[in-house]
Design a protein that fits this description.
The protein has about 160 residues and is an all-alpha fold. It is built from six helices and no strands. The radius of gyration is 19 Å and the shape is globular.
Length: about 160
């Protein structure tokens, strides 16, 4: 059976679209269920299946439009002014918390402390009065979470 060039092109296009959709949704919160990944007081496994990059994590953590950790926490980032003091200092967070605990605090800190004002960076449901542009979205992507976890793990006394 001989296929026409048009069918070959369409089949190839369908494969590329399918692969693109699979890559685009991998590691996103669409299928994320905290009940399936939480173990004890943390989330031990990477959300992406690969380790984070501490350099990218530092950038995300101090970026005022992404992690914005400096709004509430002190970090060893002397080039940035105006560190917050609402939350605990993160300068030695890896001395106090495990990787799994840090990951859970970023995903949904209300699991550990229901009264916290810290936002859930990787949760997209259960909120009230969400701005339209944020409905159904997480604040950070899975890779951002992993990168920030990797960065915070470098902060030990």
């Amino acid at each position: 059976m001989k296929l026409k060039p048009t069918l070959i092109i369409l089949a190839g296009f369908a494969c590329v679209v399918g692969l693109a959709l699979a890559v685009a949704t991998h590691g996103q919160a669409a299928d994320f269920d905290l009940n399936k990944v939480k173990v004890g007081d943390g989330v031990p496994k990477s959300l992406t299946g690969k380790p984070g990059d501490p350099k990218q994590g530092r950038k995300a953590a101090i970026n005022r439009k992404r992690g914005n950790c400096l709004a509430c926490h002190i970090l060893p980032v002397p080039e940035q002014a105006d560190h917050g003091n609402i939350g605990p200092s993160l300068s030695d967070v890896a001395s106090r918390m495990s990787e799994a605990e840090i990951r859970l605090r970023l995903i949904d800190p209300k699991v550990s402390n229901p009264d916290t004002i810290m936002p859930s960076f990787y949760k997209k449901t259960g909120f009230h009065r969400v701005q339209k542009k944020w409905q159904g979205k997480t604040i950070l992507k899975a890779q951002d979470i992993e990168d920030i976890v990797a960065y915070l793990l470098t902060l030990k006394e």
